[in-house]
Amino acid sequence: MKTVRDCLWLWGQTPGCHHVNPNYRIPGVNRMTPFEGCIYMGIPNICRVVMCGTPRPPFDQESLPLETLDRVVWSATCMGKDDENYAPWGDLGEVARQARKYANIRGVVFDDFYSEKLFRLFTLERLREYKRRLSEASGREMEIWDVFYERQYKKPLGDILERFPAFDVITFWTMVGSELVHLRKNLERLFTLAPGKRVMTGCYMWNYGEGRAFTPEEMRFQLDIQLEYLLAGKTEGIIFCSNCIADVGIDAVEQTREWIAEVGALPVPESRACVTEGTP
């Protein structure tokens, strides 16, 4: 049977890239790599996501250590070029090349998909074409994931709902810490809007939206709710953000490590919990 630890993911990005935004007010200096973050946190899966234009292809040096992890999902689009003819396919070819080399690469995630530019470029048809091209070039069925924030609820949802059918997984994130009080309600609303859709929760270890640390009580609150939904089989994973704050002395990181050690061996329902080993 799958355990909680099997269902945990790290949001992995290039060291230092979260410090670029002064509004986050992140302390210290970040040097921890995505792979080191997985080892440090005790997390076996990773979303390796491009930020600040890095990493740039080829991704061989990035993929090599990640081969030891259970599952890897790469970025869907390249943030290093602004050509609209290039942007829709981004690093698709490079991700597919890595997938042919490494069997643990399972798909791609559309980070910040609801930016004006990406949303305009990626119609439902183009999202389906992206998945078709990626799977064909990889030699096996690949998944595409969505990043959906709590703030999307404050906007018209019609165009968003039209695109949901293209995604295999919707990841739900609460970037503004004060909105976590609505986490249960927001998750239940997502289940209603996308019935039967596979859902993962994103878990910030720093309150990026309000530029401050989480209190121990705030951090435990969101950890407990996300565990509740995972153990109930309503979600199939938790994604922690990120290695970019894991080595700068934030208490919530150490609290999360202790929490993972505490609950990691708990069994998770097989029915809707996690993708089983060997499933692309």
CA radius of gyration is: 18 Å
Question: Roughly how many Å apart are the termini?
Answer: 19 Å
User: What is the CATH architecture term?
Assistant: Alpha-Beta Barrel
Instruction: Output the number of helix runs.
Output: 9
Low-confidence stretches: 79-83, 273-280
Per the CATH scheme, the topology name is TIM Barrel
Q: In terms of structural class, how would the helical and strand content be classed?
A: alpha/beta
Largest sheet, in brief, is: 8 strands, parallel, barrel
**Beta-strand proportion:** 15-25%
For the record, the CATH class is Alpha Beta
Helix content: 25-40%
Give the mean pLDDT: 92
**Count of beta strands:** 8
The largest beta-sheet arranges its strands as: 1-2-3-4-5-6-7-8
Instruction: Let me know the CATH homologous superfamily.
Output: Phosphoenolpyruvate-binding domains
How many domains would you count in the coordinates? Answer: 1
| Overall geometric form | globular
Q: What is the H/E string?
A: EHEHEHEHHEHEHEHEH
Q: Would you give an account of this structure?
A:
The protein contains 9 helices and 8 strands. It has 280 residues and is α/β, with parallel strands linked by helices. The protein has a single domain, classed as Phosphoenolpyruvate-binding domains (TIM Barrel), CATH 3.20.20.60. It has an 8-stranded parallel β-barrel, surrounded by 5 helices. Helix 3 (92-101) runs parallel beside helix 5 (124-138) and helix 8 runs parallel beside helix 9. The longest helix has 16 residues, at 216-231. The chain is globular. The two termini are 19 Å apart.
